Automatic annotation (TrEMBL):
The keyword Transmembrane helix applies. Keywords: Membrane, Transmembrane, Transmembrane helix. This is Glycosyl-4,4'-diaponeurosporenoate acyltransferase. It comes from Faecalibacterium prausnitzii L2-6. The chain crosses the membrane at residues 64-82, 88-111.
Length: 141
């Protein structure tokens, strides 16, 4: 059973990745990063563990948003089908909708902050490189 859950999790994560890819590209375009991958920038500053942790949080929020929306549909259907009353129906809808929206907003903020920080780190690195090369040039003349 655990194996099936793992496989289902991989499938859901892949679906969420496809759904949220457009958002990721839109945010990534706002922060021009020259490095081939963002993790290279973080590794230079010895913060790759924090970057990996942040990327895991981003994936978790992405999957939580998708799962909450799916649960909203399934649970609302079940509550309506078994005539549990309008109070339970509304509680189910509001609860899962709130979780889906909160997860979606958290995903957006985490992704935005991740790329903003990556761009700042890369700019810091590039500016230090420019300073060193200009110092070498001035000392040689």
């Amino acid at each position: 059973m655990l194996g099936w859950c793992y496989i289902l999790g991989l499938i859901v994560d892949r679906i969420a990745d496809i759904i949220y890819d457009k958002r990721k590209m839109h945010i990534k375009e706002k922060y021009p990063i020259e490095a081939e991958t963002s993790i290279i920038v973080w590794e230079h500053f010895k913060q790759d563990a924090f970057a990996t942790f942040t990327l895991s949080r981003i994936r978790l929020m992405r999957s939580t948003a998708l799962n909450s929306f799916a649960m909203l549909i399934v649970c609302t259907y079940a509550v309506i089908k078994y005539h549990c009353g309008w109070k339970i129906t509304m509680l189910t809808v509001v609860g899962f909708l709130t979780m889906a929206i909160a997860s979606d907003l958290a995903h957006f903020n985490l992704l935005n902050n991740y790329y903003k920080k990556t761009m700042k780190l890369e700019n810091s690195y590039l500016n230090k490189g420019d300073v060193k090369s200009s110092e070498k040039a001035s000392s040689q003349s």
